[in-house]
Amino acid sequence: MPSDTLSYSQKVSEAAAFVREQTPTIPRVAIILGTGLGNLATHISPELTLPYAEIPHFPQSTALSHHGQLVIGTLEDVPVIAMQGRFHLYEGYPVMEAVLPVYVMQQLGAEILVVSNASGGVNPKYNGGDIMIMNSHINLMFRKHQALANDELIPPGSEQPGTLLYDRELIELALRTGRKEDWAIHEGCYVSLTGPNYETRSEYRMVRAIGGDVVGMSTVPEVLTAHSLNMRVLALSAVTNVAKPDALTETSAEEVVDIARLAEPKLTAIVTDLLKTL
Amino acid sequence: MLDLHDKIEDAVAEIKKQWDKTPHAGVILGTGLGSLVQEIEVDVAIDYGDIPHFPKSTAVSHAGRLVCGTLAGLPIVAMEGRMHMYEGYPLDMITLPVRVMKALGAELLVVSNACGGMNPNYRCGDIMVIEDHINLMGDNPLIGINDDRLGPRFPDMCEPYQQTLVDRALKIARKEDIVAHKGVFVAVAGPNLETRAEYRFLRTIGADVVGMSTVPEVIVAVHCGLRVVGFSIITDMCLPDALKPANVEEIIAVANEAEPRLTTLVKGVLAAENS
Fold first, then answer.
1. Residue A198 and residue B156: Cβ atoms within 8 Å?
2. Residue among B156, B198, B200 with most chain A CBs within 10 A, to mutate
3. Of A206, B39, B184, B218, which has the fewest CB atoms closer than 10 Å, so is most exposed?
4. Is A149 exposed, middle or buried (0-12, 13-18, 19+ CB in 10 A)?
5. Which pLDDT tens digit goes with each residue over A150-177?
6. Is B162 in the A-facing interface, judged by CB distances under 8 Å?
7. Which of B133, B138, B139 shows the shortest C-beta gap to A200?
8. How far is residue B128's CA from residue B182's CA, in Å, rounded to a whole number?
9. Which residue of A has its CA nearest to B187?
10. A253: chain B residues, CB-CB within 8 Å
11. What burial class does residue A211 get, using C-beta atoms within 10 Å of its C-beta: 0-12 exposed, 13-18 middle, 19+ buried?
């Protein structure tokens, strides 16, 4: 059947069926590896690596430092599925295309979503290299997310969650790892904008004034999707630099990627600690 | 965005057929400010309809021509009439003329608009030199696959409006005894004017004036490496505790009245480029 005549849920099912044909593993945890954090995938004992291009209906990844493949395997003996490379709205993907992999990972069996991102800090108490565990977000992306009310995609028998988007227990676990390892770790609010330009000084001030601690260009669409599917969500933000709007200096993509790379061991430790509890 | 490169070339080729100079600056004239064009020694004025891929301008009081000529001794191209997001144009189309200006050789973008003043220290008819902006349009002209020939994937926005040009414009204003402020412009899509609660919100997040244009063009100017100077004419005051219905005719009348002052500032900034 040509793909343009398929419904969205049929596309999700076809993509999931394609993955299932290649491996019997039922992943419990889905992991989305954001900018500069892709190497967490090297800690996974892989059973299967699928480039996005081979998976039916998957969009293609174009962003800086992203590879674009699905890795299925085990991490701390827990079956996981990881997205190495993700889809940003600034690349022009409609929300429903960008979040399709989340539906697929849930349909394959994932009950927990761990998502990471690189963000710019606006909370003056933060420093570049800190980790922030998201406990809330403000969505300033102005994009429609048609399927959140689509019953077809919600697992049968489950009620709409109506609970916190960000799982309290998972937040506590992550914070505990941070204390144990003695890092600067915060919990806070992530403000999502589409980008792709970095923010003006006035926009950083706005983000701070409305209650944001960090600002970024991703994560919120995936979190909303996972939550609508009753997945428990843990979202980790690597604070790459702290914007000081009264003395703003230039931000470059390379710099952001470099600092995000320094955060990799920390995010790896949080995720492995979490998996040990499962 | 990958088709933009070819569209720019098509437009540039057509303009070059009719005008062979290299502009130093591109000028975008906002609502009620189109008669600044009368100050230009015009070589040729090209209807947008005759330039490939240029959209037609439909808003009240907008003409829709690209005027090529000389202002303050500098070769310039000026957009008489601009396109707005609320007219339904996609932002990459609205901002195409900015990329064309750059491709023609311009290094400076001068933008102007009519806006609503929210800072209570401003008065109707005052000019604000734009120091910074907040994009609340819910869209961005750079969304899509980036063409690295045109600019970087993640343009920095720490100084979209060149501070030295802001200072220069304010200095000219003081010398000419023109009331001019330095402030923050917030862009919304419109087309409805804001509610009182929205004015309070926009003021709270740090804006001095609000308008429905300019920010897409400036984002693209920064993306393609143009220096930018921006002017807002405060054509009505939007004070939420004493809000009156807005009237388009009055707004345009205020803009027309303020226009000679804006012209003085624009000519002054351009003249200083020459020295």
1. yes
2. B156
3. B39
4. exposed
5. 656 666 555 555 567 899 999 999 999 9
6. no
7. B133
8. 5
9. A203
10. 152-154
11. exposed
Q: B124-147: b or e for each residue (b if 16 or more CB lie within 10 Å)?
A: bbbbbbbbbbbbbbebbbbbbebe
Residues of A in Cβ contact (< 8 Å) with B206: 202, 205-206, 209
ipTM (interface predicted TM): 0.82
Q: For chains A and B, what is the number of CB pairs under 8 angstroms?
A: 86
Which residues on chain A are in Cβ contact (under 8 Å) with B142?
A: 90, 195-197
Strands B25-29 vs B108-117: parallel, antiparallel or unpaired: parallel
Comparing CA positions, the residue from B65, B53, B32 lying closest to residue B232 is B32
Question: What is the per-residue pLDDT across B111-165, written as a single tens digit (0 to 9) for each?
Answer: 999 999 999 999 999 999 999 999 999 999 999 989 999 999 999 999 999 999 9
Q: From A88, A94, A86, A92, select the one nearest A30 (Cα to Cα).
A: A86
At residue B177 the predicted structure's pLDDT band, cuts being 50, 70 and 90, is very high
Considering the four listed CATH numbers 3.40.50.1580, 2.30.33.40, 3.10.50.40, 3.10.450.700, the one that applies to the domain covering B4-274 is 3.40.50.1580
Locus of tokens 């400010």: B33
**Beta strands per DSSP E along chain A:** 29-33, 45-51, 69-75, 78-84, 112-121, 131-139, 185-192, 214-216, 232-242
**Residues of chain A by 3-state class (helix, strand, coil), percent to 5:** 40, 25, 35
* Residues of A at the B interface, defined by Cβ within 8 angstroms: 62-64, 89-92, 142, 194-203, 205-206, 209-210, 248-253, 256
C-alpha closest to that of B78 among B91, B97, B93: B97
**What pTM was estimated for this model as a whole?**
0.86
From chain B, the residues in CB contact with A256 under 8 A are: 154
Cα nearest neighbour of B157 on chain A: A200
Distance of CA A146 to the CA centre of its chain: 19
Structure token pair of residue A103 = 């539906």
The whole-angstrom distance between B136's CA and the closest CA on chain A is: 8
Mean pLDDT estimate for chain A: 86
Pairing of strands A45-51, A69-75: antiparallel
What is the C-alpha separation between B152 and A208, in angstroms, rounded?
26
Q: What is the pLDDT of residues B8-60, one digit of tens each?
A: 999 999 999 999 999 999 999 887 667 788 889 999 999 888 899 987 755 54
Domains of chain A (ranges, CATH numbers): 3-276 (3.40.50.1580)
Angle at A162 between CA A161 and CA A164, to 5 degrees: 95
φ, ψ dihedrals at B28, nearest 5°: -115, 120
Percent helix, strand, coil in chain B, to 5, is 35, 25, 40
Mapped onto helix, strand or coil, the DSSP state of residue A12 is helix
Interface check B220 vs A, CB under 8 A: no
Distances (CA, A) of B229 to B28, B157, B166, B262: 11, 14, 7, 12
